[in-house]
Design a protein that fits this description.
The complex is a heterodimer of chains A (about 240) and B (about 270).
Chain A (H helix, E strand, L loop, with lengths): L4 E10 L2 E11 L4 E5 L6 H8 L9 E4 L2 E2 L4 H6 L1 E4 L11 H11 L4 H14 L15 H13 L5 E5 L7 H18 L2 E6 L10 E6 L2 E7 H8 L4 H9 L3
Parallel strand pairs in A: 3-8, 3-9, 6-7, 7-8
Antiparallel strand pairs in A: 1-2, 1-4, 4-5, 9-10
Helix pairs in contact in A: 3-4, 3-5, 4-5, 5-6, 7-8
Chain B lengths: L2 H21 L1 H22 L17 H31 L1 H6 L5 H27 L8 H28 L3 H17 L7 H7 L1 H8 L2 H13 L5 H21 L6 H6 L3
Helix pairs in contact in B: 1-5, 2-3, 2-5, 3-5, 3-6, 3-7, 3-10, 5-6, 6-10, 6-11, 8-9, 10-11
Classes of the chains: A alpha/beta (about 240), B mainly alpha (about 270).
Chain lengths: ~240, ~270
Amino acid sequence: MTPALQIKGVSHSFGDFTALSKVNLEIKPGDFTVLLGLNGAGKTTLYSLVTRLYNNVSGEINIFGYNVRENSTSALKHIGVVFQQPTLDLDLSVSENLDYHSSLHGISAAEAKVRIKDEIKRVDLEDKLNEKVRSLSGGQRRRVEIARALIHKPKLLLLDEPTVGLDIGSRQLILKHVKTLCKKNKLAVLWATHLIDEIDKGEKVVVINKGKILESGEVGAIIKKTKTKNIRESFNKLVGLK
Amino acid sequence: METIFYFRCFKGIVLREALRFIHQKERFFSALVRPLVWLGIFAAGFRSVLGVSIIPPYETYIPYEVYIAPGLIAMIQLFNGMQSSLSMVYDREMGSMKTMLVSPIPRWFLLISKLLAGVFVSIMQVYAFLLIASLWDIIPPISGYFTILPALIISGLMLGALGMFLSSAIKQLENFAGVMNFVIFPMFFASSALYPLWKIEETSYWLYYVCFYNPFTYSVELIRYSLYSQINIEYSIGIVIFTLIFLILSIIGYDPARGNLQKKGGKK
């Protein structure tokens, strides 16, 4: 089976500062993978390389077999992204924002209308379609961004700290929605976070710290390997937190 | 990727820019007030100081207001080009630029679409200005309202591409304010917008050359000639060359492999 995302030996530097060092990572279709790391661990840099906002000059990044550097059009077609920073246009309505995204992926107006209706329904915001994004709460804006990321039917969803700054209710709602999508639609998900309570049993976790992957595997396996009681202790032990 | 996908993408980018423009009414208002202040106050005060002899494309003596009208039209486009780039720096800082840059449509196409969307907005501003300017008896031949259109497209593209290149080279929004002062004002004043080049040549030879090689002069003169349904080959060729240079620079500036984003993002 072709991996949804395959990262091989990727490094990246900002001047003298090494943000990523020989990172290897593989996600299969239908996998929900948590990229766990503290702030500044290199998560956003990794996302910027996968989405080709930055150019990867070392190693290789493939999305469903397409190299992002050599075949970026085919590679980017398969990705849906929710960035750490909010990226909706506050002065436009929800539907105008979603229409804009559809056009960026070459979707026809008629098709976009159907898809927008479906996706916005899934995040339970049908009644907000004509409202300006500025009037929405932080949690609602995030849900709109998730709906937007799915309009072009990607097979790989990348979310960079999507729940930061949200209340517990909104966090749980978003997490549950994405995990359901993953199971039902065989969507591959890479969920970057520093919030350990977002990880459930049986999920795959990749621990990143100072640009290096320290450990990777199923939650139980990491706990066993690090000889700790839970994933929080494993993480603390791996990154050297007391 | 199919051609229709490109068309839909282009349509979406232009529509978004138009929607933003409609929602930001104060932007439209200020874009019009600026040249009208120049026309109503500056030109009124200077018409008795500056005498303009008969120069092409004019066939007779003209009031000073008529002389500076093409310069003010180019000023609308200059401000619009810079403002649209300012919004790109803002979008990049705020993150919304990323949405566009991760589209599977090639980046050069996205950037040119964004530029053309800005040009479209500036053309709406220019026609609104021409309508109001008729109150000052600035009434070109009817054909001029049509022949000015291609000149506005190429001039808008050039000024927009210059702004886009600058936006790719600027890291923070705060830095852009400085560029506005160092780019907009020198470009505007060191051009043929407010005074003919021969008058500048009489005053200072080196300043004449600065004005002559200023890309903004080419915008002003192309618009001046086209407003009277005439074409000046020298300025037309010049503006095409400047447009291509700025376009290539801005596309390189936003190319993840070569451009300024890469320099900001990490070294090779």
